[in-house]
Amino acid sequence: MRDVFIAGTGQTDIGEHWDRSLKDLAVEAVCAALPAERRGEVDCLLVGNMLSGELASQENLGACAADWAGLGPVEAVKIESACASGGAAFREGYLRVASGASDCALVLGVEKMTDLLPDGVSAGLALAADGDTENLHGATFVALNALIMRRYMHENGCRHEDFSGFAVNAHRNAAANARAMFRREVTGEDYARACMVASPINLLDSSAICDGAGAVLLCADPQALGNARRIRVTGSGAACDTIAVASRQDPLQLLAAELSSRRALAGAGRKAEDIDLFELHDAFSIMAVLSLEACGFAPRGRGLRLALEGEIGPRGRVPIATRGGLKARGHPVGATGVLQVIDAVAQLRGEAGASQVPEARVAMTQNIGGSGASIYTHILEAEG
Questions:
Q1: 64, 83, 104, 295: the active-site residue
Q2: Which helix (DSSP H) or strand (DSSP E) does residue 382 occupy?
């Protein structure tokens, strides 16, 4: 397997882009990651997206994005893995370059979610759950995560306000990210006052519906990086679990997170304690807790303590959501896995401003599809 380097990144602002189409967002991210004079070098375009057909009336998205971005007759394909579509596309790009099937792969994640009313978007997102046992009975993703959070609180004797540190940290970090959707800090008091969405999940426990795109150029030739600090993808892992939460032996165990992180760390020759920052999938506060536990950063039932003890900030033991995460940077679902990589690259290159993790050299990203059904984990390392 060949070494794989990140040769360029680009993204849009994350937010509500009422005046822009799915194509507009895709093209902006591609152009930011890939100068026009280098577009002929790209072998393939891999597009992570979940809902282009349901929300934007556009399938065949690979060809569509390649056409509008001026990439010519490259191989282009859409990759869908629910909210983990961006992570799945990134893994595919990594494997193609590492195997020699491609020398230069462009990974694009894009989602346009705000053109429909919230009920329509929620119905689209629910397609990532089990159609027969969850969707048929009206279980939305907020409801499923609320059930998981309630169970966690019951088993571990914790209170809802104990989760506030995740929102406070994400919003503080997003305030330093010019691309983030919510560039304002919140307090524990704000968290306590936030209205309930599906008890015990409130507005500050959950990510918002938004639009955005990110693109990452992967290559095998380190000379393509120019003078930029070399960032190498050293590990990649993927795993799945039952699609329905009720079918799992333990609904509080993210088995796919455990397996995918173990595989990514093994590929990189690393352990959890080597990770300087973790861009996890905090679509809901409870998912952040379960991810920290599954990946070995905290024992079972103790992930919450990392937030309570101030260990998840940029100078903490396990920095997470360092550019705002899904909660505050934003969660345009098909783009999220790619945006996590872009956030990690900013940290590894020392470009994260006020939310910079000191001396960051090894980063982990983890993108979750469904309620833990499909999970992709990657290890990135700075060289030199």
A1: 83
A2: strand 374-383
Distance CA 25, CA 11 (A): 9
Is residue 75 domain-resident? yes
Does 229 have pLDDT greater than 90?
Answer: no
- Examine residue 78 and state whether it is found in any structural domain, yes or no: yes
Q: Could you tell me which residues are beta bridge partners of residue 11?
A: 214
Q: Are 339 and 214 in contact (CB under 8 A)?
A: yes
Q: How far apart are CA 355 and CA 351, in angstroms?
A: 9
Cα–Cα separations (whole angstroms), residue 173 to 96, 255, 329, 356, 365: 33, 28, 9, 9, 16
Which two structure tokens, joined as six digits, stand for 359?
A: 């001396």
Mean pLDDT computed over every residue of the chain: 96
Point out the catalytic residue in the list 17, 160, 331, 378: 331
**Alpha-carbon radius of gyration of the chain:** 19
- Calpha distance 274→307 (Å, rounded): 19
User: Are the C-beta atoms of 184 and 211 separated by less than 8 Å?
Assistant: no
Q: What is the pTM of this model?
A: 0.97
Rounded to an integer, what distance in angstroms lies between the CA atom of residue 149 and that of residue 23?
37
Answer yes or no: are the C-beta atoms of 303 and 152 closer than 8 Å. no
- Per the annotation, the verdict on 195 as an active-site residue is no
Residue in the block written with tokens 């004797």: 157
pLDDT band for 139, please (50, 70, 90 cuts).
confident
Nearest to 236 by CA among 86, 101, 47, 95: 95
Range of the domain at 42: 4-117+209-225
Q: What CATH number is attached to the domain comprising 93?
A: 3.40.47.10
Q: What is the largest CA-CA distance in the chain?
A: 58
Does the active-site annotation cover 137? no
Total structural domains in the chain? 1
Phi, psi of 109 (to 5 degrees): -120, 130
- Residue position matching structure tokens 């000379």: 223
Please state, in angstroms and rounded to a whole number, the distance separating the CA atoms of residues 34 and 217: 7
> Which residues have C-beta within 8 Å of that of residue 62, sequence separation ≥ 6?
45, 46, 47, 76, 77, 78
Residue 36: pLDDT band (50, 70, 90) is: confident
Which of 340, 315, 318 has its CA nearest to residue 329? 340
DSSP line for 110-132: EE--TTS-HHHHHHHHGGGS-TT
